[in-house]
Backbone:
């Protein structure tokens, strides 16, 4: 079986590579010739554990190809996935110009029956727009080539994307014909053999499932951050509260870890897009609006603790930051809380020295030399007035606290991810600030 995946961003590259891993012949297409040239040289543009090796393996076995030529990639293809970006517009709605642009190009070049699948996260109703765009191009050509559209949202966690794709909780597919279902069942047959459920449904329901899933997870995070802030006020410890509610099977222990807010390419964008979709249909998602509001405020919580501790005098102070990416095991800086914290510190005259295992290059691309980048986590500490833990990379969890004490000017830790125990920090003589922790 042969397929095309248009877009070599996070979703497209992981999806195409994982499909190739199951024996399917995949061509990943992108208009960015520089990115395609690098991929053909074995240079992977994103950081995802295990992806480099999987790409190399499937390229060597002639199952995975990279191209800028969509027309050529459609030859003999049975399915084409649209996995291009859908960045938020100024009003929060998803920008579909790239999705529709690919649909038009497919309509201009397709020569036989195709199933055109939206893999990008798109609002309800996008499949209709994709279908109309393809049909318009076919009409311009004066040809009547049958095709189907489908929706197959992704549920990948950055840092665990390969396992999520190869061992999914579920595969959601929206279709509107038996032929499309037959084709996509064939494509996903390797996953069915491992008892992973495929949930076929109508297209609007599939499109909605993606937004609803991400919004529910974002809601759990914002709820727990709100509770953490209240815990500090009333003298409770949010870690005890988290364990207490997480043991309830109806709630579960995932996504109830308080911190400095969620970021990344999915949650912020999808929450905004779903709120906008509701507004366009004269409905207000009040809970989800609160989720977004809480998250925006939460990104300032760590800075507020710093500001209060130093009595508002941050000018000339030096702060060490451990962790820049929005979560561990990725170099993704989109909507990263660290950017908000850095911006506030710098605007108040502070100096920032940061270390992150993989995302410093991407951070530099975004903010340049606004901050200093350390060679390792301990270099960042030298003569710093305090340490800020912003991303919970494993290598930060059990540091050499004697070294930390020796290098820091002041024994102060602002732990934005609650990876240290307040009692242990007190024993070691550190002034410690967590999120919702009882010191």
Residues:
């Amino acid at each position: 079986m042969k397929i095309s995946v248009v877009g070599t961003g996070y979703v497209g590259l992981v999806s195409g590579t994982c499909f190739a891993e199951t024996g399917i012949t995949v061509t990943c297409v992108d208009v960015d010739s520089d990115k395609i040239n690098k991929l053909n040289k074995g240079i992977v543009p994103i950081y995802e554990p295990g992806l480099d090796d999987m790409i190399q393996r499937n390229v060597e076995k002639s199952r995975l190809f990279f191209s800028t030529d969509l027309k050529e990639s459609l030859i003999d293809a049975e399915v084409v996935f649209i996995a291009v970006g859908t960045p938020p517009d100024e009003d929060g709605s998803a920008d579909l110009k790239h999705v529709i642009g690919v649909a038009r190009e497919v309509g201009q070049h397709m020569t036989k029956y195709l199933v055109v699948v939206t893999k990008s996260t798109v609002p309800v109703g996008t499949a209709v727009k994709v279908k109309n765009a393809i049909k318009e191009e076919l009409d311009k050509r004066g040809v009547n080539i049958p095709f189907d559209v489908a929706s197959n949202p992704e549920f990948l966690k950055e840092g665990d994307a390969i396992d999520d794709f190869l061992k999914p909780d579920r595969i959601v597919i929206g279709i509107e014909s038996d032929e499309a279902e037959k084709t996509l069942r064939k494509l996903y047959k390797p996953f069915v053999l491992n008892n992973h459920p495929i949930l076929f449904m109508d297209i609007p329901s599939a499109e909605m499932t993606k937004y609803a899933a991400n919004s529910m997870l974002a809601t759990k995070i914002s709820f727990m951050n709100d509770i953490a802030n209240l815990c500090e006020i009333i003298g409770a410890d949010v870690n005890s509260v988290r364990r207490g509610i997480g043991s309830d099977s109806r709630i579960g222990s995932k996504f109830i870890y308080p911190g400095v807010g969620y970021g990344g390419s999915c949650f912020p964008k999808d929450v905004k897009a779903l709120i906008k979709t509701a507004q366009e249909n004269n409905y207000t998602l009040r809970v989800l609006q609160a989720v977004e509001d809480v998250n925006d405020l939460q990104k300032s919580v760590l800075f507020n603790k710093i500001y209060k501790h130093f009595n508002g005098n941050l000018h000339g102070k030096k702060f060490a930051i451990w962790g820049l990416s929005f979560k561990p095991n990725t170099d993704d800086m989109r909507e990263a809380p660290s950017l908000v914290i850095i911006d506030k510190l710098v605007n108040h005259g502070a100096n920032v020295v940061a270390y992150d295992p993989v995302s410093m290059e991407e951070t530099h691309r975004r903010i340049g030399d606004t901050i200093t980048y350390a060679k390792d986590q301990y270099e960042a500490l030298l003569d710093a007035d305090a340490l800020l833990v912003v991303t919970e990379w494993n290598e930060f969890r059990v540091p050499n606290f004697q070294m930390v004490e020796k290098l820091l000017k002041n024994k102060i830790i602002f732990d934005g991810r609650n990876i240290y125990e307040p009692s242990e920090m007190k024993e070691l003589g550190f002034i410690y600030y967590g999120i919702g922790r009882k010191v």
Q: What stands out?
A: The two ends are 59 Å apart (CA to CA). The longest strand covers residues 2-6.
